[in-house]
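Input/output pair, single chain:
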Amino acid sequence: MTTSRTGTASHKRFRRDVLRAGQQAGITHCPLCNVMLDYDEGRKPNSAEPDHIVPHALGGYDHVDNGRVICRRCNQRRGDKMDAAPTGRITNLIAW
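Output:
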């Protein structure tokens, strides 16, 4: 039986570290849609979620350097796509 990648220790550590870093950096709003983030309650559209800048499916890794905090709605909408700036660079909207 296969287990979910999000249930692994590596992903749980990634989640914890990215959310902690986001709170410590004072990230209060989603950088994509500007909704106020809720760090306390999960599974709501505005819940803070860790997002892989380079998606795991495209070779991204579970490390805080490859993460940012966005709202649940944007995270689900984004899926396994990469954001590209008009210059073609990957956007990392949070300077850690």
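Strands lie at 48-52, 67-71. Residues 86-90 have pLDDT under 50 and may be disordered.
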